[in-house]
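Supplementary Text 2. Reproducibility record for the structural model of the 233-residue chain.

All settings were left at their defaults, and a single model was retained for analysis rather than an ensemble. We include the record here because the model underlies the residue-level annotations in Supplementary Table 4.
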Amino acid sequence: MTDNPNPQVTEESSKIDNIKELGQIEIPSFKSDIHCLTISGQVEGHMVLPPQNKTTRYEHIIPQLVAVEENPQIRGLLVVLNTVGGDVEAGLALAEMIASLSKPTVSIVLGGGHSIGASIAVSTDYSFIAPSATMTIHPIRLTGLVIGVAQTYEYLDKMQDRVVDFVIRHSKISDKKFRELMFRTGDLARDIGTVLVGKDAVECGLIDEIGGLHHAVVKLHELKDMPERGVLQ
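Retained model, structure tokens:
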């Protein structure tokens, strides 16, 4: 015969878990059919970043995306971004997975959606950006030891073409305009590239609309109530 668990102990344990994971004691008990996916800090790929870095690990995100696709109770995905970018292949892999979901998806850039974060932002069916949020568009860059041979530069060109191709397929921006933003000089100190603020990202066709959380949730509810997915692609 086993004793019943102490309700008080269970409640205290739950509060401790909430504080550790969410920074607060109580969270709303409402059960939503929308899954919120957060891409924050730096997208961590094959290399483990230092512990002081705020990271989003792609191996943590992939199971969530699989669960979203398989779980019949989840009818839509909201992707919230505030990222400086990170590993190109990991970010592009996440973007491809989001784009291939059969369920409606909406993204919103809050704070920043820089570098490979731009690919993730446009991977959804519809995208929003906060008026004060920014997106940095720049060429692919490498840090650390690089083998200075022709094959290295060819590989970089091919990887960059993959990113450009994905972005133009999932947004309204043209190949010419996107490459122009990537290689523009003068906008960034000691670097090349362009910083887009809110309405600039919308005007060039990279992001669909300026808006906040409410707008993103309303749009996602509209999409998931439609008979067919992809009408806004």
